[in-house]
Amino acid sequence: MGLLRLLRSLKKNEKEARILVLGLDNAGKTTILKALSEEDISTIMPTQGFNIKALVSSPRHTQEGFKLNVWDIGGQKAIRPYWKNYYENTDGLVYVVDSSDDKRLAECSEELQSLLQEENLQKVPLLVFANKQDLQFALDAEENMDNPSMLSCYQRGQQLYYFIFSLGLQEGMEWLVKTISEKK
Amino acid sequence: MAHLQDKADHSSSATSMQDQHNQLKKIAEGFKIVSLKMKNAANGQVLYESSEWDLSENEVKDVRFPKEMLQCTELSRELVFESREAITDLQLLQKISLNNQEIEHLYFKFGFVIPNSQNSWDQIIQADSEGILPAEVLSGNLMVETLFISQDQVINRSFYRVFYV
Q: Is B156 at the interface with chain A, CB within 8 A?
């Protein structure tokens, strides 16, 4: 039992935040994760589980330095039923949308809406990232918003939300970290 | 009657302990470190890479890291692992000791692991602002004990002696 006691005492961590990155397969979740630390994004394979990136946010954006654990979970249909195992203790949610995939926009918004029903994700700040805006046939971010089923989940009221237009990953993450640190 | 009841409870808990033991064994057999990479977090340069990370428990193994690693202010460590079985609550505990004295420990909770999954964990390790001990002091005297834990059961425990070359 000595081991267990040690684990418990270690769990009292200082300022840490857990960010969950979800979205359909091929939306670009892992690319975003890698881009956060300016890593090479040329050889990314479909995620068959999770990828975690532990980062220390610079004090420039928050009062003090903040330790971030960003979790990207695979988005393939077979993996989605396991998403629920990762909701607990989430401080921020990033939902990545492939703007060039108009065929799956309905599926994409269905998944988002079911996420917003989750008990453990209530009151968690949400960042929706309209990815792949640079592709030729991409719906623009406003068009994504206009999609009636997409829109309905933003009108839920209490949920703190944010919508990001096109290429502002940095800006979006800064907003998310700032919102989380104000809540903590 | 009460006595019989006790007896029944006892035997069922013995069975569940056996089940737990078997399950743990299955988890351990299906658990594999795919790769370990150490990178300079400032420029992404790979300083160390290994795809054969032996998790067998019986002996202390040696690992050789390049000296330059000690000069990085931020080091990124990427661990990729596979699991055949689902794991309810995976945790990692690492104890680092210098000349048999524990100087640091690191704990991380992964939580649930998807069956047949490959997962990665990339962590930024910041150098102590007071500076790092020279390679000559650390090399060969630094021991890293790594435990992978499921709930409160050890999946495996390995010991590595670190050399800086």
A: no
Is B84 contained in some domain? yes
Task: Annotate A105-136 with DSSP letters as a single string.
Answer: HHHHHHHHHHHHT-GGGTT--EEEEEE-TTST
Is B24 a domain residue? Answer: no
Which residues does chain B have within 8 Å of residue A81's beta carbon, measured at their own beta carbons? none
List the single best residue of A3, A14, A73 to mutate versus B (max B Cβ within 10 A). Answer: A3
Domain span at residue B75 reads 32-164
Query: Looking at residue B36, which CATH number applies to its domain?
Result: 2.70.50.40
Q: Is the ipTM of this complex over 0.85?
A: no
In chain B, how many domains are there?
1
**Nearest-CA residue of chain A relative to B121?**
A52
Write out chain B's pLDDT in tens, 165 residues. 445 445 445 556 677 888 888 999 999 999 999 999 999 887 888 999 988 777 777 789 899 999 989 888 888 899 999 999 999 999 999 999 999 999 888 889 999 999 999 999 998 877 766 667 888 999 999 999 999 999 889 998 999 999 999
In whole angstroms, give the CA distance from residue B71 to residue B66: 10
CB contact under 8 A, A54 and B93: no
pLDDT at A73 over 90: yes
Q: What is the CA radius of gyration of chain A?
A: 17
| Chain A residues 12-51 with CB within 8 Å of chain B | 37-40, 48-51
Task: Domain ranges for chain A, please list them.
Answer: 12-183
Global model pTM greater than 0.90: no
Active site residue A136: no
Instruction: Tell me what pLDDT residue B112 has.
Output: 97
Which CATH code is given to the segment(s) A12-183?
3.40.50.300
Distances (CA, A) of A161 to A94, A145, A156, B65: 10, 13, 10, 45
